[in-house]
Amino acid sequence: MGEEAVHFSVVDAKDCKQSAFEVGDKTYVICRSDDDLKTSAVKIHDKLTQTWLSPTILGEQPLLTKSQSVIPVSDEKILVIEKGVPLNESIWFLEIDTPFVKQQRKIKETEVVSWSKGVIGVGQKPVVISGPSGVGKGTLIAKLMKDYPSKFGFSVSHTTRSPREKEIDGVHYHFTERIKIEKDISEGKFLEFAHVHGNVYGTSIEAVESVTDEGKRCILDIDVQGARSVRASSLEAIFIFVCPPSFEELEKRLRARGTETEEQIQKRLRNAQAELDQSNEPGLFHHLLVNDDLETCYENLKKLLSLDDDQEDSDDFCKFKKYFYFHCVLMLHCVFSDGGSHYPSVNKEDKETASYSIVSKTDSEILLQSETNEGKNGAIHLLALDLSSLSGGAPGRTRGLKIGSVNSF
Ligand SMILES: Nc1ncnc2c1ncn2[C@@H]1O[C@H](COP(=O)(O)OP(=O)(O)OP(=O)(O)O)[C@@H](O)[C@H]1O
Ligand SMILES: Nc1nc2c(ncn2[C@@H]2O[C@H](COP(=O)(O)O)[C@@H](O)[C@H]2O)c(=O)[nH]1
Q: Mind telling me which Pfam families this protein's record contains (predicted)?
């Protein structure tokens, strides 16, 4: 918009501090300055109007390095490989026209692009648990977390409501100010948010992604508005609605909990009716659970989540699973460097830096060439990045990347 033209000359995958790509009627330029590697800018040249745009950039930004390899993988996104960082830190997508970007463009009434970090392998689908206040969601989730600490992680929401007596900041909720949460929401840091019983509640992207990154299944305790927003997002999840055996019993539980004033109880009960009315809406919840007898309901929840009753989640078992998960991730990062006869040494802390350049692309596969880790006798080390099963994406991570070896030559 009346800005100075950014000089660029690159239309192919190439290493540079400015990478430009034509997608449709637009040219996207990713620029970074020499001295300040922490900031990148994206400029868009619209060929139809002959104008330059500075879009709003959403999402977690890549840890910028001095050199990148960049290529568009579809009309929706551009793949950016940062060099000189561990492989699991190096793969990023700049989303230029994904459903999330389209939606944000409408909301913000301005041009938008969004970063999303590429993650090797898929995480387990998060579980969204909804239901009226006082039905027992928190009680059921607490049992699940106690019995299966290595399997599940809780998505710690943000809320503007005041903490209850035994609630701990950062454990039960991130207690926050309205002005702060509104700012973070406007910066695209939240997967969903809603005004519930007079306060703002929201799930940050980091709350969900950090649990999945740990190899655990993320559990979200959110209201029906939140469930609806997550349903419409790029996050694939299982949606469960917990119902009370009767409205009278719900009221009894809310009162017995003793955490709300009479006025708040009345407000929660009014909202409960509206939530119950939506529980059967087609396409919203996958499962309905009635929480009459707590133990029965808990067993039914476990069945839904395919949990084996006999499997103990002892401390030793947890440690073993963490160890196993860690090494599976390392294996995925490993490459057969010698016709599959051995793995190259991989730093146990997974900090080994890598530098790969994009050398070719088909519809679903990108060929990467190592610049730093040559195979035997200086053979060229190639890696195939399979993009055919991507899931998620901005505002969260892009999961489902597969990396395979290609024989050195
Ligand atoms: N099956 C049950 N039978 C009797 N009491 C129950 C049952 N399940 C939970 N409770 C009790 O009901 C009260 C409300 O439960 P809980 O706090 O887990 O509800 P919640 O759905 O998480 O509410 P909120 O949405 O307000 O956080 C608690 O005192 C809990 O001990
Ligand atoms: N949409 C969201 N709803 C949330 C979130 N975290 C909690 N909740 C829901 O709020 C009510 C009230 O909770 P309380 O702790 O004040 O009793 C309850 O229905 C929760 O499910 C969130 O991040 N987003």
A: Guanylate_kin
Q: Is 399 a catalytic residue?
A: no
Which listed ligand is nearest to 172 at the C-alpha?
A: 2
ipTM of the complex: 0.99
In this structure, the answer to whether residues 46 and 140 fall within a common structural domain is: no
Catalytic choice (32, 217, 228, 268): 268
- Known active-site residue 164: yes
- Residues at CB less than 6 angstroms from ligand 2: 133, 137, 157, 161, 192, 194, 196-197, 201-203, 221-223, 225-226
Give tens-digit pLDDT for 260-319.
999 999 999 999 999 999 999 999 999 999 999 999 999 999 999 999 664 545 444 444
Token pair 């399997």: residue = 151
Verify that 136 and 116 share a domain, yes or no.
no
201 pocket-lining for ligand 1 (C-beta < 6 Å): no
Q: Are residues 116 and 138 in the same domain?
A: no
Instruction: Pick the residue whose CA is nearest to atom 8 on ligand 2.
Output: 222
Q: Which ligand is nearest to the CA of 130?
A: 2
Domain encompassing residue 45: 18-120
Residue 141 Cα to ligand 1 midpoint, Å, equals 10
Whether residue 7 is contained in a domain is answered as no
pLDDT per residue over 2-22, tens digit each?
333 333 333 344 444 677 888
Residue 172 token pair: 């039960």
**Dist. CA 141–CA 155, nearest whole Å:** 11
Looking at the fold, whether 283 and 190 belong to one and the same domain comes out as yes
Residues 166-200 have pLDDT tens digits of 999 999 999 999 999 999 998 889 999 999 999 99
56/106 same-domain check:
yes
Residue 198 CA to ligand 1 center (angstroms) comes to 20
Residue 134 CA, ligand 1 centroid: distance in Å: 5
* Measured distance CA(274)–CA(339) in Å, rounded: 61
